[in-house]
Amino acid sequence: MSPPTADLFSVETIPGAGRGILASCYIPKDTIVLTGEPPAAHVLFREYRKEVCAQCFLYDRGRTLRVKDHDTGKVFCSASCQQKWVDHTGELGDGAWQDLHHFIHAKSKGGKEASGISLTDHRPDVGEIDGGWSQAKAEADVRMRKAIDGASRPPGRKQTKAAVASSTIDPDILGYLLSGILAHHQQPNQWREDVLALAMHKEPYTTTHDLEAHCTSFVHLSGIMPVELHESCTIEVCRALAAVSSHNAFGIRSGSEDGEEYMGYALYPSASYFNHSCDPNVAKQRVGNAWRFWVVRDVQQGEELCISYLGGDEKDLNVRQRRAHLREVWGFACECARCRREATSSQDAG
């Protein structure tokens, strides 16, 4: 599926901008060009765990949703959404979410959720990242062997999951990684085609605390996941999830794309091929847990289809502020037509 293909567009290499989506023909205004698939991985932030539907991402102005699954900690806007989630997740996935929910609950009671970032923290380089993940793999291998040994014991003997160190936890990272692990387990070949085809950020962690949280989350998951998920609970999968989310994730917001509540983020491989413009010719709208994209003006053959990576008040920034924000958050210097035009105007005015 990824890169996406359609009669209206193709994915091409664009000088200075990596791969992007080009119109294959004239596209009239308001034409839908892509209807996205459900995410390959996502997380709804823990602070919204009682307010956002786990299936369709509905947010009802902060109200606690009534349909609750106490075993997984998920809430739903309706019984129908709950059933869709159960059908998609499957028995194995449901059990994995239960294990994670109970683990987080136990750790939270002991005051072991993630702590603040150290003032001496810094952005880790590739060497530090490789070292952190190598250590995490060694620890995870031990826990997985214990889990396999426990699962193979004769009936009548107590079977317990591998013990997990009492370090701090990050429920949001744990949830994001688990969602990706389950997606990989369900469709490993499709997952590789979609996710591994995306641009990977070699240094996706903004701080050493962030790196440690990802590595520790992987170790925790390796100790509590069912044995059947071990082939998907790997550093290759978890590192890829972090590397692609840095520059490809879409924010999950309430209401519109500029919604006032930032409730989480998700990875949509096909939609990730849209490049950014501060004057986009494509608009987007989240419909449930998927996205819909349409052109907001007539597009000529060969023209690049672009969305805006800016949301809310960010769209009102001036060219200097926009460029600074895009460089800090997305890692590129914007050279769209609007930025070039406004930069030239400001220089002329100065």
Tell me what the structure shows.
Residues 7-310 form the SET domain. This is SET domain-containing protein. It comes from Friedmanniomyces simplex. One of its GO terms (cellular component) is nucleus. Pfam families: SET. Residues 115-119 and 155-166 have low confidence and may be disordered. The strands form four sheets. Strands 1-2-12-9 form a four-stranded mixed β-sheet, with no helix packed on it. Strands 3-11-10 form a three-stranded antiparallel β-sheet, with no helix packed on it. 39% of the residues lie in helices and 16% in strands. Among the domains are: 5-37 and 268-346, SET domain (Beta-clip-like); 90-107 and 124-148 and 164-248, no CATH class. The relative contact order is 0.17. It starts with 8 loop residues before the first strand and ends with a helix. Strand 5 (67-69) and strand 6 (74-76) form a beta hairpin. Helix 3 (171-186) packs across helix 4 and helix 3 (171-186) packs across helix 6 (235-248). It has helices at residues 79-109, 126-151, 171-186, 188-195, 208-224, 235-248, 319-330, 337-349; strands at residues 9-14, 18-23, 32-35, 41-44, 67-69, 74-76, 249-253, 262-267, 275-276, 282-287, 290-295, 304-307. With 350 residues, the protein is α+β, with helices and mostly antiparallel strands. The chain is globular and about 65 Å long.
